[in-house]
Amino acid sequence: MSFADGADSSGRVVLGKAWMRSLVQALSMALSDYRHEALFSACSVFVLAAVLAPLMVLLGVRNGVISAMTDRLLRDPRTLEIIPVGSGKYSSEWFRGLSARPETAFVVPQTRSIAATISLINPNQPNLGQNVTQLIATAPGDPLLERYGLPEAGFVRDEKNADSLYPAPLVIISASTARKLAVPVSPRELEGSAGYWLEGRVERVVQGRREAAGVNLRVAAVLPPEAVGVDAVFVPLEALAAAEDYRDGKTVPLFRALAAPRAEKRREAAPEKFEDYSASLYREREYASFRLYARSLDAVEPLWKWLTAREVEVYVKVEEIEAVKSLDHAFSVIFGLITGAALFGFAASTAGNALAGVRRKSRSLGLMRLLGFPGAGIVLFPVVQALLTAFSGAVLAGLLYLIVAFAIDSLFSASLPGKAAVCSLSSGQTLAVFAAVLAVSALSSVAAARQAAGIEPSEVLRDV
Amino acid sequence: MSASAPIVLALRGLRKDRRTERAEHYSLSVPALNVRLGEKILISGPSGAGKSTFLDMAAMALKPDAADEFFFFPGARAGDGKACDIAAAWMRKDIERLAMWRKHVGYVLQTGGLLPFLNAEDNIRVPSRLLGLPAQRDKTERMAERLKISKLLKKFPSQLSVGERQRVAIARALAADPPLVLADEPLASLDPENARAVLGMFMDSIEDAGTTLIVASHATDLMENMNFRHLILETGARDGKASAVLRAVHE
Hints:
- The structure holds two protein chains of two kinds.
- Chain A has helices at 17-36, 38-74, 77-80, 92-100, 143-147, 175-181, 187-190, 237-247, 262-267, 274-280, 297-309, 318-360, 362-371, 375-412, 427-444, 446-453, 457-460, and strands at residues 81-84, 90-91, 104-110, 117-121, 131-138, 154-156, 168-173, 196-206, 209-222, 232-236, 256-258, 286-287, 289-294, 314-315.
- Chain A is of the alpha+beta class.
- In chain A, β8 and β9 (209-222) form a beta hairpin.
- The longest helix of chain A has 43 residues, at 318-360.
- Chain B is α/β, with parallel strands linked by helices.
- The model of chain B has no long low-confidence stretch (mean pLDDT 87).
- Chain B has seven helices and ten strands.
- Chain B has helices at 51-58, 86-91, 95-102, 120-131, 137-146, 162-175, 192-209; strands at residues 7-18, 26-36, 40-44, 69-72, 84-85, 105-108, 180-184, 212-216, 229-238, 241-248.
- Chain B is globular.
- At the A-B interface, α1 and α13 of A face α3 and α4 of B.
């Protein structure tokens, strides 16, 4: 054995291999002591798990059902809708500018409201008569339809009129329209082999003569009653524009003439190509109105300002937005306070445990110092034990959380829309909880570590 | 031990002032002391005279108030004459250096001083592990056999009697072949018969290891005829203060 171990030729302490070896030995001592005091260590782990598990469940619930509920409110298209007041003249370029804005989630042109109606008839229930229904334009990505998981509107082959040169609109109707026309609500019945068809009728007066045009509409889905409170049918823009153009006396595709002289019928049979008509709607046409949805609650105000600056008067649901925002804020504050209180309790309990541990073990720590353990090793002793407790407690709390989350989900998940998880934590959030617990434990054991560092072997030698 | 044996501990003008329950101020002085490798020194004196205080200073666990010279030669056994200036280290408050030097001193305390969370075998191996020495199982077994603790190696201190703990502590103090072993009243907690047996085993082990021993004890009669250099702490008063001075008995 050489005295040079741990010191260089000039006697300087070499904080290298020897120091690291002593440190490793100190860590091994901390583990041995932790194992030796198994009962005490287990109690500390249980105490930590008892604090942490309910907190994790709470975070899981906040993250699961409450977040989902708040999120649903925050993303409710009815709250995010910006409704124009009155009519205007909005060009295709204006729409392009609006849809390019980052705050815009969805925008689609809308025609004059006076021209945006259609009389619907259910050929399966002729005795129910006509139902005058509002035509509303829709397009892919419509937030209202997406919220209820409904299919997009579009066009399908006109199964009811094999001679037709044009496709038939695939539409979504409101619950009240479905009820008045006795249209089944269930998707299974709507999607039967031939689909569910309605007849649409638009009228006009040309040179004192009343004329009518018809169109077959295939029903893709029915909106729930809470989505729209009026009689409405959501159609592709082409169908809406065709209704307006027809009323304006133009010849249009899609609509076939009804109850008109034979010659005129022939003349109007093929007004223009459907594709050309469709393309023209997005080029030089001007629209009287629009349907606009903001991307989020925070995006409503900038959009409102943008529109107001262009003298477009709109209505936004300020009160609803404020209510949803304040609910979200209240939830965040409540959970923040609970988490803060729990973390404070956890930190205090860890610090108390570590301090008491150092007091209790001062003789052993002093003896280790006498045997030549470095100060850093003695400092690490309570820190390592606190981290061990934190890690074990977090793992136990994680297991308890999984059991409780499974029980909560089993009991309540079925009653939630979409059977969403009531209590859930992502792996990232779980890792964050673990990291926070370890960090708080390490910080809480600093006082104990300082106390351990101050232990003088001569002060405790006579007691061992 | 020959007069030419290397010096392990050299000190001059060592003093420690402290408050005690019996006297407001108390002073312990060691005018001069050289300890050579293989030497056996017995320190006796009345209770409270400062025997343990002296051992704690020699173990570098307690800071002296003054020291003209205080050197430790941890490499004495290997012929390395490099000196560790303990007084200078204390002056510089170089606690980590002192801790490192302490690894080269074996210390047997009154009731063993074992780590409660390690079994006897692991307690014995702590000094060797700290010094990074390779595990010498056969050496441990030989020592355990000599000290009659072979069957106790897997037991924890709480499962051992006081005598058994003392024997484990002796094994630990000798395990890393230190040049200096200190023992503070190693027999005080034992009955006379047990004390005689433990002392016999202790001395045999010391002889076997060829190391240096400084033992503080009241049981001087047990240690007669064991070739101890006997030092005594003489108590008295100096400058109105209670004091004790370490002197050779046959000086």
